[in-house]
Amino acid sequence: MNNVIIGTAGHIDHGKTTLIKALTGRNTDRLKEEQKRGISIELGFTYFDLPDGRRAGIIDVPGHERFVKNMLAGVGGMDMVLLVVAADEGIMPQTAEHLNILDLIGVRNGIVVITKADMVEQEWLDMVMEDVKDRIKGTFLEDAPVIPVSSVTGEGIELLVDAIGEMTAGIKERNYDTIFRLNVDRAFSISGFGTIVTGTLISGKVEEGQRVCIYPAGIESRIRNLQVHDRDVEVAYAGQRLALNLAGIKRDQVERGDVLAPVGAFLPTMMLDCRLRLVRDTGWTLENRDRIRLHIGTKELLCRAVLLDRESLGPGEECYVQLRLEEETVALRGDRFVIRSYSPMETIGGGVVLEPNPPKRKRFNRETIEELKLKESGSPIEVLEKIINLNSGSFPGIHDLVKLSGKSEEELEPMLEKLIERKTVRTFQSGSQQVFVHSEYYSRLLAEAGSILREYHRRYPLRSGMPPEELRSRLFGSRKGTFTDEILRSMEKDEVISITSRAVSLCGFKIELTPVQQEIKEYMLGLLERGGYSPPGEGEIINQASYRKDEMEEVLDMLVESGEIKRIGEDTVFLAKYFENAVNTAIEHIKKEGSISLAVLRDLLGTSRKYAMALLEEMDRERITKRVGDNRVLYR
Ligand SMILES: Nc1nc2c(ncn2[C@@H]2O[C@H](COP(=O)(O)OP(=O)(O)OP(=O)(O)O)[C@@H](O)[C@H]2O)c(=O)[nH]1
Ligand SMILES: [Mg+2]
Q1: CA 433 to chain centre
Q2: Which helix (H) or strand (E) holds 631?
Q3: pTM of the entire predicted model
Q4: Which ranges constitute the DSSP H helices of 532-608?
Q5: Spacing, Cα 553 to ligand 1 middle (Å)
Q6: Residue nearest atom 32 of ligand 1, based on CA coordinates
Q7: 13 lines ligand 1 (CB under 6 A)
Q8: Rounded Cα gap, residues 453 and 447, in angstroms
Q9: 318 contact partners, CB below 8 Å, separation of at least 6
Q10: Structure confidence by residue, pLDDT tens digits, 317-330
């Protein structure tokens, strides 16, 4: 289904509201003050049945200079516009201002309607039409039909309806298969029902009962009831105007300018990276850090424009800026906006959001400009790749990427698959969680791990490697998580590192002993072999020989680390095979007799009480045995 929203635009009193009434039979000026003063103040909403039976939403905007901000809250939802110019007055200031705004916001379809045709002579009408055609050259309305009508006599209205029918038939469908977004343009309460918000669903679809989040505050709610054009519906689609009854929300928790979207879809921001253009017919020049009004979605807020590559921006010029906001908002890449001067208020330009969650940018920085260029003109997959590259360090999962990219999971998945297939992106899985890192980030990690380990092996040539914990914290800092294990395992698969439970080393690293160290090793192993179950202590081993003491300690440590020697106390070491034998002897005896005493083990091994005790205590520590009274039994 192809839903469309038709908006009006044009100078005050030129007949916008009257035209809508002539088309629909309904008056969109609903405020008392509007009726009393005969002008529109707020946005007016109704619907219009198109010739082919579809029902289009209508947004009627006020033309008064003071209410341009209300007009701005309405334009974001428009698929096509009726630019209204009164035949008796011709183009006036807000005709031009509205035209600029529509152009900046990116409205692509429209019809120019010359109203009050009944009030002027044909000759005058022809002149006004010529003037209008001249003025719309170079804008999106350049090829638009220009249709004279009288909302009073009805002349030309039929022709206009046909033109609307033709134009709406060709309007491209909005995207339903993405995260839904509704920019709130009204919020009010009805007693007995609670809080109602209205707005245009600019993307996706929503269902009754669905959970939603009010941004930027992050308040969660549920859609209790959903209406389109005053009728209850179960589902609403992009391009429709909606009224939503929000469960459990107080009137003061939501207002115009807020955004409704899925829970977790947006990261509120205080900065926006943008491409900004000033309109040609403004008298303003924007200086770096000028305070301006930003209109984005239905929101108006104040901000400062940090010009990233120049000191000032003149009429008709464009550049990259970082907008520093005075309050939080949410936006997506590609969102259009308008800026107005702080005072006096005038529409001076607008543009498009390139990065909705940027870091604070430094000015005149080449990398920043390159990044923004890519985000401006890159394909969605190139942009996704860039996002992953910039955020790999925080191990983004699919939900993070939804927030960072503004795309739904369904949109991201095929792109991620392609990036993984191309080996541009690597994915790591841990349990049900999956993260995505750029291969450039992974390569940097590999190089870093390599240099950390090379340095370690150089300093400790007799150690088999670095404790895994130490490497993990050197590489990932405090970023914990099971993904770091997965990444290390992947480095092992890539044959860069080897991992045992005790040490990580460079793949292929082997301890190489000098001839002296080799001699020391043989001396120690020989001594312990002869010692059997009553071996000399560490101090004794080291003090008896005439090698360098520190070198002996290193070799001893190495033999302990490699598992050839078992250290079971301050000063007590055994050859590993003797310790294992002692364990087996004890286990066998317990299995036969139910338990073992110190004296029995001492006799079975032919050793002294001191060694038997040390061995049993180590077995207790390792939970092979446990002590019950004076005896040991199996730990379980
Ligand atoms: N004769 C004649 N009068 C018209 C026509 N259209 C509008 N008017 C009159 O012009 C006046 C202003 O019309 P509105 O429809 O309120 O104008 P508007 O553009 O909605 O004004 P704002 O919303 O305040 O910007 C009203 O008195 C209308 O009756 C027309 O086609 N012919
Ligand atoms: Mg009006």
Answers
A1: 17
A2: strand 631-634
A3: 0.76
A4: 538-544, 549-562, 576-593, 598-605
A5: 99
A6: 116
A7: yes
A8: 10
A9: 275, 276, 277, 278, 351
A10: 999 999 999 999 99
